[in-house]
């Protein structure tokens, strides 16, 4: 019978992302029942627990987000995998979300709504928040757009009301309309609460996007919060795989190399907080809404011209200036998004999907999908299904 391994998880259970990590680790242990798991109660940012100093298990998966935990983990003589972006112990293998990819997705989501002014609301306590801020600012700068930044101050944690007053004043002063990316859903909830109290209209004056897709928080928000979906469960499972490999190599007395892995986000759960076409150009706003509502009905640019009283040349020019794409590109982008969703969430054949998303034929859909995504739709479905089977919920 295989030797039982004792593994501790120094991961909080108080937020959606960490719980996703734990679900991923659990899915690995269900298929590899040699692990005995120790999961103590732990708050985010808390000091290391007293038991850690004398831990005599076989391995540890930890969120090493502060120097205190780093000091406690550093002397441990056992394999450790870090699932934090802080990199407080750079010699320890780590696996984390790709913050640059998250920021790129956030900027694209807000930019495609016609917004040209942006804001980032971060938390100075966390390295991943600073990483997202810098990448988000870079995308805005490359696009020639302004980006305003707010950071919660660690010194204000003892007096949350001070930080809230700062945030309130910052939100009031922001030029409107603005697309705001909050470092995570809890911060976005605070932004939306202030906007509601101060009668700042969301999404028309401030379109708000969070991260982590904590469905409970997102639904509690008014209006419901759009949020980036991290691949938390995949990250947790791959961290477990990494630790298992390290423990096996240790038993075989093989040299262990420092590994690293960044996991891109899965997409965005779009809700009412970013449901806006932010432009004073009424005709282009109407055109964008028409594409959004009818993209899967086989429409062409000529159909937009029937709904919007503009010449094709003027529509093309103004649409590109505001949206960043031509009307045809926007139609195709939204159709491909619809195809992707049906490939992932249904068992419909490619022929049925092509008809439901407005393509003339399955062949036409396949060519368009490969051009935009990089692989044919059938391969995309197989790859994603294999990933889900490998990393089940």
Structural notes for this entry:
InterPro entries: Homeodomain-like_sf (IPR009057), HTH_AraC (IPR018060), LacI/GalR-like_sensor (IPR046335), Peripla_BP_I (IPR028082), XylR_PBP1 (IPR054031). Residues 285-383 form the HTH araC/xylS-type domain. Strand 8 (178-182), helix 6 (185-197) and strand 9 (206-211) form a beta-alpha-beta unit. Helix 9 packs parallel to helix 12 (327-345). The chain is built from 15 helices and twelve strands. With 393 residues, the protein is α/β, with parallel strands linked by helices. The strands form three sheets. Strands 7-6-8-9-10-12 form a six-stranded mixed beta sheet, with helices on both faces. A four-stranded parallel beta sheet has the order 2-1-3-4, covered by helices on one side. Strands 5-11 form a two-stranded parallel ribbon. The protein folds into three domains: 5-96 and 232-263, Response regulator (Rossmann fold); 99-230 and 268-274, Response regulator (Rossmann fold, 3-Layer(aba) Sandwich); 282-390, Homeodomain-like (Arc Repressor Mutant, subunit A). The protein starts with a strand and ends with a helix.
Keywords:
393 residues; alpha/beta; Rossmann fold; Arc Repressor Mutant, subunit A; 3 domains; six-stranded mixed beta sheet; four-stranded parallel beta sheet; 15 helices
Q: Would you kindly provide a brief summary of this structure?
A:
The chain is α/β, with parallel strands linked by helices and 393 residues long. It contains 15 helices and 12 strands.
